[in-house]
Specification:
The chain is 49% helix and 13% strand. The protein is an alpha/beta fold and 319 residues long. It folds into two domains: 6-171 and 308-316, NAD(P)-binding Rossmann-like Domain (Rossmann fold), CATH 3.40.50; 175-292, Orthogonal Bundle (N-(1-d-carboxylethyl)-l-norvaline Dehydrogenase, domain 2), CATH 1.10.1040. The chain starts with 5 loop residues before the first strand and ends with a strand.
C-alpha cells in the first residue's frame, strides 16, 4: 500500500505537467489544479482528478506539490483570496518544486508550520525533456524527516536526488545552477559565432566543443536546438530573467562584487523586452545573430530535445 497515496499538484506548465505525469504513472491518486484547465486534459484522460479550486486540492490530498513560475504566484496560491492557507491542516506536507526566492520560501514555510503543516523545497534541474523521461535531478531542502516522507514520491519524479540540508539551501543552490546555465548559454552563442565567422562548419564546432574541456550540459542540449533553429528548450525568457534576478539578489545580500551577474541580468532583460517574456530562453542568442547578420544553423540537429536514456528509479545521492 502506498503511503501518502493522494497527491495534489498545482501548476501544470511545461515542467509541472511532466512531473505530475510521472506521479500518475507510479500509481498515486493525483488531484490537479491550474489556472488553465486546457493544459491538463491529457492528465485527466490518464486518470488524474481535476479540482476546480484549492480547497478541493487540500481536502483530497495529504501531500501538496506546487510547481509555479514565480515567487509572487506561489504567494498568491497560498495567501490570495481562497488560497491554500484557508484549507491546509495538520499532517499536510507541502513540497515546493518551483525555482523560488529562499527568503519567501522560509516565510511561507513558517506560516505553514504554525498550522501544523511541514514543508520541503524540491526544485528540479535538467530541463523539460528530463522531466518527461523521469530522469530529472532534484535538489531537496528541509527537515530530514520530511525528506524521508517525500522520498518515495520524489523517486518517481526524478533520478538523482540530493538532500541539501536545511530549508533555503536547495532554493539557493537551484538559483546558482540556473545562473551558471545562463552564463554558459550566452558564452556558447559567442563561441559559435566566432566559429561561424571564421568559416568553421558548425557541426564540426559542436562536436569539437562536446569532446573538449569546454563542454557542458547546456552545450550538449541547448546548442542542438539553437543550431536547428527551433530554439525549443521548453524554458522561457521570463523564467531565465527571473532566475538571474534571484541570483543577483544573493550577490547583493552578501556584498559580492559580481560584475558578470549584472551583465547577465542586463542581457536577459533586453532579451525579454525584444523577444517577449514567453519566447524560449535560448532565443537570447538571436541578439548576437542579428548584430552579426549571421544565423547559427546547420543540419542534423533536432528541433526538440528528447531524453533517450531509459527511465531510472530515483536514488538519493550520498557522498
Amino acid at each position: 500500500m502506498i503511503s501518502d497515496a493522494n497527491i495534489g499538484f498545482i501548476g501544470l506548465g511545461n515542467v509541472g505537467s511532466k512531473l505530475a505525469n510521472n506521479i500518475l504513472l507510479a500509481g498515486y491518486n493525483l488531484f490537479i489544479h491550474d489556472t488553465d484547465k486546457n493544459k491538463v486534459l491529457k492528465l485527466i484522460s490518464k486518470g488524474a482528478t481535476w479540482c476546480s479550486n484549492l480547497e478541493k486540492i487540500a481536502n483530497h490530498s495529504s501531500v501538496i506539490i506546487t510547481c509555479l513560475p514565480s515567487p509572487n504566484i506561489v504567494k498568491q496560491v497560498f495567501e490570495g483570496k481562497n488560497g491554500l492557507f484557508n484549507y491546509i491542516k495538520k499532517d499536510h506536507l507541502w513540497i515546493e518544486m518551483s525555482t523560488t526566492d529562499e527568503d519567501e520560501m522560509k516565510r511561507l514555510a513558517k506560516i505553514c508550520l504554525q498550522k501544523g503543516v511541514e514543508t520541503l523545497e524540491s526544485p528540479v534541474t535538467g530541463g523539460q525533456h528530463m522531466a518527461e523521461s523521469g530522469n530529472i535531478a532534484i535538489l531537496v531542502g528541509g527537515k530530514r524527516k520530511n525528506f524521508e516522507r517525500a522520498l518515495p514520491i520524489l523517486s518517481e519524479i526524478g533520478y538523482e536526488i540530493l538532500y541539501c540540508g536545511k530549508l533555503g539551501n536547495a532554493s539557493t543552490l537551484k538559483v546558482v545552477t540556473n545562473y551558471l546555465a545562463s552564463v554558459n548559454l550566452i558564452s556558447l552563442g559567442e563561441a559559435l559565432m566566432v566559429c561561424k565567422k571564421y568559416g568553421l562548419d558548425l557541426k564540426t564546432a559542436y562536436h569539437g566543443i562536446r569532446i573538449s574541456s569546454g563542454n557542458s550540459f547546456v552545450h550538449e542540449t541547448e546548442t542542438q536546438v539553437i543550431l536547428n533553429g527551433s530554439y525549443d528548450v521548453g524554458f522561457t525568457m521570463d523564467l531565465a530573467y527571473k532566475d538571474a534576478k534571484l541570483f543577483d539578489k544573493l550577490t547583493k545580500k552578501f556584498n559580492i562584487p559580481a560584475k558578470l551577474s549584472k551583465l547577465i541580468n542586463k542581457i536577459f532583460k533586453e532579451g525579454q523586452t525584444k523577444y517577449g517574456s514567453r519566447s524560449f530562453s535560448t532565443s537570447i542568442v538571436k541578439r548576437l545573430e542579428e548584430a552579426c547578420k549571421e544565423k547559427l544553423r546547420t543540419t542534423d540537429f533536432p528541433n526538440k530535445l528528447i531524453d533517450k536514456q531509459p527511465r531510472k528509479k530515483g536514488i538519493e545521492i550520498k557522498f
